[in-house]
Amino acid sequence: QVQLVESGxxxxxxxxxxxxSCRVSGNAFSTYxxxxxxxxxxxxxxxxxxxxxxPDRTLYADSVKGRFTISRDNALDELYxxxxxxxxxxxxxxxCAARSGRVALDSRNFERWGQGTQVTVSS
Length: 123
Prior knowledge:
The chain is mostly beta strands.
């Protein structure tokens, strides 16, 4: 049973930085496409960024491009999201997600999810 556990959320001020982590259990992390999504109350879950099982292949939502960086450490079975220049609109619950690796990287069909970690950006 694959489990995803996020950590690193918290309260920050506009302009601050924060790094989220996601630890994935099991022995197949290096074969997964991984992604971050976020959700605010009353809205649908929104794609943030994805990292392919293929090295150095990433994808970002336009709203975070240039501010957020997704990365992974296959030796530690961990996924990260470095968030810089944070804005109030980045406030959300952030979810880590996984799917079996594909040739094309996109935001669809992620099958496994973590429980989420709250990120609040407020002065």
